[in-house]
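INTERNAL TRANSFER SHEET
From: sequence group
To: structure group
Subject: Abasic site processing protein

Please process the attached sequence and return the structure record in the designated field. Keep the field labels unchanged so the import script can parse them.
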Amino acid sequence: MSDRFVFHASKDEVERQFNVHSEREDYFESHYNITPGSLISVVYRENGARLIYNFKWGLIPPDAKDEREGTENYQTTIEDIREEEWKTACLQKQRCLIPAHGFYKWKTTKKKNTPFYIRLLSNELMAFAGIYSVWESESGRDVYSCSMLTTEANALVQPVGDRMPVILDPEHYQTWLRGEALSEQMLDRLLQSYPMSKMAVNRVSEEVNDTDNNRPELIQPIPK
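Return from structure group:
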């Protein structure tokens, strides 16, 4: 499972890399221990424009009675999507990018769970592939929510988990945000595990286990 991630980019960095603009400073706040159910910054396309907005992390089903019903849908696989018609519709026309610097995974043994932070070797900002939905609450409020797509872990990540987020290169942002269905061939091409040669895995402090902790020190490597 990839149920925590990190985002600490500046407003200028996000706007430049994703070709978006917003006057909202809160869309660019740094977070070092993001959990499902949180509001996260998401880049998406709507009415022909590329936008950034705060989405609920956890895809809300169209027939949900409460927005909390989406929390368990914080990540999904292409196989899961194809089994549910409403998720398939999101994949066809409502795809999004989730800006991030890295994600956490835990290596489980009989004695304890050891956290690891996984990032690009360059430490640069990246984008997870996602799908989103717009759910209308009883009060008539539109709630935007999303799910992170995962794929098989590459050889670097495999020792700490068998799944990892789908990471897209900037050259594929435009294709992913296109508001039309993608061919099976294109999906197969995009939804691959990211090359291990471009990534790093570091053991980090067990303080990340506490979801209340949200400090830059959480991603600092410690000796294995």
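Handover comment: The mean pLDDT is 94. DSSP finds five helices and 13 strands in the chain.
Transfer complete.
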